[in-house]
Amino acid sequence: MVVELRVRLTVTENEVENLKKENAAQEAELTAVNTRGKMRKKSKVAFSAGLTDLGYVKAGSDDLNLLFSRIITNVGQAYNSTTGFFTAPVRGVYYFRFTVRDHLASHWMNIRMFKNGQGIMWLDDYETDDYNTYLSSGLTVELEVGDVVNMVLPAGCRIIDNSNNFSTFSGFLLFPL
Q1: Which CATH architecture has domain 45-176?
Q2: In this predicted model, what pLDDT tens digit does every residue of 116-132 receive, in sequence order?
Q3: Burial of 79 (0-12, 13-18, 19+ CB in 10 A)
């Protein structure tokens, strides 16, 4: 009888250990599912914004950080229309695109894109024909969490926008890393 009770106790102890292992595995899986869900939510990032309704925007003697304040789309809230900065919520590869317009008559139009305060793109044009001119480009950038991207109008330059969104800034997460 004692031997039989010991065997039963051993079997029961083994079953309890197996149940503990299964429980730990299920907890780990639940944690992983929750983490994937949070990552999926964070990785929904896309924005587009128009510059202004005010017409000409001109930089004085210093460069002007552009505030694209007319939000068209801001999924994930990573673009701040008050500061003009896009802040990466997840590590990943992002695509940014911009278009700016001016009415050129013998002057320069310039635009710059910055990442963490360092210029990563500079476009310019000089026209004498007194017609509307656009600068437009895009680029793929690898960003870490907290990296910022913004557009700058160099000193002495100007662009134009109104409710037709001639000048826009957009970006979205291609994929997280």
Answers
A1: Sandwich (2.60)
A2: 999 999 988 766 676 77
A3: buried
